[in-house]
Amino acid sequence: MFSAQSAYKRAMPGTLPSQEIEKLIADGCVISSAQIRPEQVQPSSLDLTLSRRAFSMPGSLMPLRGERVTDLIERYSRYPIDLKEPGVLVRDNVYLILLAERLDLPEGVAAYANNKSSTGRIDLQTRVLCDGNPRYDKIPDGYSGELWLEVIPKSFDVRVRAGDSLNQTIFYRGRNLLRSEDLDQLPPVLFDPEGQPVQDGVMDDGLLMTLDIEQPVAGFRARKSIRPIDFDAIGQHDPKEFFEAIERPSTGTLFLSQGDFYIFSTYEYVSVPPEYAVEMLPYDTSAGEFRAHYAGFFDPGFGYGEKGEVKGTPAVLEVRPYEDDLIVRHRQPVCKMAYERLIDKPSKLYGVGVSSNYAAQRGPKLSKFFRQG
Predict the structure, then answer these.
(1) What is the pLDDT of residues 28-82, one digit of tens each?
(2) Residue 45 in contact with residue 169, Cβ under 8 Å?
(3) 102 and 13 share a domain?
(4) Is 187 found in the same domain as 153?
(5) In 3D, which of 282, 295, 262 has the Cα closest to residue 364?
(6) pLDDT at residue 285 is higher than 70
(7) Are residues 207 and 66 located together in one domain of the fold?
(8) How many C-beta atoms surround the C-beta of residue 141 within 10 A?
């Protein structure tokens, strides 16, 4: 292992592509209590999975330095849950679930976790905790130990079991983020709905994305439902039971109610070439109060295709106004896309020979759990 550690430390900085994630697994740096399935490895990320071991918690909390997550569970948990059989996680309750994967990262390699798109689109909040680290979702350089997932269903009850995947992680040797001057040198990666390049999208080391509500279906608003969303029932839920469609407003303006959950999409279509990955970041709130509730990763190949033949794909936004009701308008800035370099091109691309639910999405597409059409 010493030689592997040294090799990782000496290698060039950047986010790891799929073949390097597979090497981490082969080297024993990512270990699972279940077998890691090939489909868990995405072009620049790894899908993490639930184990059987879960606990109901009285609230959200994180460990202090030197404290294990199990110390928190022993002190604060309400009752254990065995996810060998499907269990329902109740809306507005907090749960801690041990992930099947544990890490023994080489020196120089760290990780960062985030919601999967399908999870964010049902307003299910997830955050990774690891021992001795008072930070959500950030796994320190060289970390060795268990990973726990804090899960908070915000709009719907959900039914999950061991093996389900709610979140994902990237691995990196220093994140190599592109600055504004670097983004200016990229080939076109942002397009309008007609496939024409957007020339003025660079802003504060990211690409500015705006809201599109001039579509026949401008978005969706979550309803109250008595039924849980079952993670094993992909494409089987009736969307009308969980969401109401929002028609295109005649005035170009929508009123969003405080505490409600909405699905929208961007006007711009984003493309991620093979050498890069992208993270959606909140737009500068000093310029407005519109916030995309869940950030997310966009793998290499999203909106790109095999050789750049796809002229971008719109990004879907999950939005919850927290403090006030909001009035939003067409083409209002909503988020920005931060590009980062990979250390190498991945061995596979999103939407090209890889199972993907959102490669061809247009407009505010609901999660994969709902029937389409």
Answers:
(1) 999 999 999 999 999 999 999 999 999 999 999 999 999 999 999 999 999 999 9
(2) yes
(3) yes
(4) no
(5) 262
(6) no
(7) no
(8) 15
